[in-house]
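Changelog-linked ticket: heme C example.
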Amino acid sequence: MSKEKKRKALLSKLSRNLMISVPMMTVVAVAGFNIHTGSNLGLIPSAEAAQGEAEGEAKGEAEGEAKGEAEGHAEGEGEAEGKAEGEAEGEAEGEGVSASLKKAVRRPEGYTPYQGDVAELRALGEKLFNDNSLSSNGLSCATCHTNGMVYLDTFKNQYPHFVAMGTRDFGMDMVHLDEMVQICMVAPMAAEPLEWGSKELAALTEFTRQEQQKYIDKP
Ligand code: HEC
């Protein structure tokens, strides 16, 4: 193949790749978490993973393109490097929930929850429940859970109880309500867990307790 032909072939391939990977990146970044199954699609449910992958891909392609244009014969290499980089980063971080996150969502030893006025905690909890700055992906708890949406029937049981997501992704047999708040913080919300013993955690826990009662009472 002549240099010129090779270059054209590469460019059209790159633009094809770009067309595929841009929507893919959006899917990964926005919905790395599958709301219907609660599954994180085998990717670690954190913003870093989505970002790592997006950056890896974008960088790889930009590099490939630049090299391809500059020197006809280096195209293949640029592309291969870019791809390998993107994939490796995605994979390295995509092996499920890390041991430290699994630990972070469990009540620490000797833990005493923050104590405060219930009405005040509920009011703050409601605010936090609707606050999408709590997540790293633009979601708020309410994005998924307005009007009792997305909960499974286990939500009706007294805590601690079995929760599918807790067992599947965090290896927990039983989950306390504050642990459930932490699980949703780190998995669907792709954020750091709240500080144990913090007013914020107590507030979200108290608010979701009220939500649970509504869910139980729902006909
Ligand atoms: C992207 C959607 C999503 C977001 C955002 C989200 N959750 Fe969840 N949440 C789920 C899913 C899915 C389940 C069901 C998990 C299961 O039962 O296996 C769930 C379940 C729960 C449960 C009930 C578990 C049970 O059965 O006892 C609580 C409580 C909860 N979430 C609280 C929260 C809080 C608090 C936030 C915000 C910090 C939040 N969630 C954000 C998806 C989400």
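Closing comment: Example verified and attached. Confidence is low (pLDDT under 50) at residues 10-31, 41-62, 64-78, 84-93. The chain is about 60% helix and 0% strand.
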